[in-house]
Write a structure and sequence with these properties.
By secondary structure, the protein is of the alpha/beta class. The chain has six helices and five strands; from the N terminus they run E-E-H-E-H-H-H-E-H-E-H. The radius of gyration is 18 Å and the shape is globular.
Length: 187
Amino acid sequence: MPLLHIHDDQAQPRGTVIWLSMSGKATEKDWPEIAKLLSQGYEVYSFDFRGLGELRMNYRARSADDPALFKGDFDQAYVSPLSSVLADYVYDSLLTGRPYFLQLMDDLKIAELFIRGRSTRSDAPLTIAATNDAYGLATRFSEIDPAIRLLADDNATSVDWSALVTRGQEEWPIAYLLPFGAFIPRQ
């Protein structure tokens, strides 16, 4: 799992932040947000989820059924929920009994365990800072792991499967596909 550890050698960190994006680990375009976290005294970890970031399958799906599929930029084509490389990976994961959404949750848990193993204070709370596209995953993860805090983001949105089904929306974020996801009760 490709992982970055960004920290200030001169400062004693006040906490640890896991920075999440569905596009992979932090890059130079994310530096303003990372620098802000560092200035607040955090050490920052960022990693690639499976099938994303460095772990992307670098080819484009082409289909006789959808000749427009390969037009547009690579990122849009990669995550298209209708017929794309990532969609094939997600559907295959569902067929083999390991839904992709849960794989993403596992990746986040693996990163958490690794980070806690490196920390001198294993009881220290971890915080997740998620970009807009990963905020829904971070929210679900913080619901099942009470030791995780979530940095609020006023611009972030979470996937609400019930709303997608009610609207009859045909395109949806493929990474969040989970069988019976629309029926997960809210507490």
